Fold this protein.
Amino acid sequence: MIKLSCSGLWLATLLALVGCSQKVQDISDTLRVAALGYNDVPLTRQQITALPYAAIQLKWGHGPRVLSVLALAEGDKLKWVTQDKKMLVTQHGRLIKTLGFEQNLVYTGNLAADPLPHLLTLLQQRQDMRWASEQDWQPGYISGYASLSRFEYQGEESQNILGQPVTLIKFTEQVRYAKFDRQLQNTFWLSPDSGEVIKSRQFIGPGLPEVEITLIKPYQS
């Protein structure tokens, strides 16, 4: 169990990040839910239904899968906290910022033009699925590195979500960083009905860890 008295600095940082538009009524309750852990333990639908908050299952690099719950929704940006006092920020299923890890993604640019929320429509209309962005990372204050992305439709694929097979629409995202002369591949599995990202595997940057995120209890605004 997380003791808030021993994590005041982190909590103050979290509160400073989330600002005044808090959607979750008691952030200390959120931390207690996150402290349940489920550290690589299979989750059941009954357990997830009983949770009072939206939740994702997170796997960072080669680490275990852990439960992360929603601490705050600021428009399209969702801020998730973990048992070990880390935070991830997602927008339409894309990981756009992290806090508290050994390497952190601290900025993602041009999010308004990200095709990810519109992939099914763009595919149907046979429109371009490319995106130009830039990212900053820490430590090292590595900033302003441009990336060019190209999404590719991979068809339907079954994924195991909470012990049950679910048919999703798979897209890969080929991301190139010219300054690094590096290319990496992100993968997204979308709901065929809503286009919402249900599962993803995303690199936070070239040579940095891959993060697997599975949406197990969606946020309801």
User: Anything to note?
Assistant: Confidence is low (pLDDT under 50) at residues 1-11, 17-27. The helical segments are 8-18, 27-34, 45-50, 119-124. Residues 96 and 112 are 12 Å apart (CA to CA). The first strand starts at residue 55 and ends at 60.
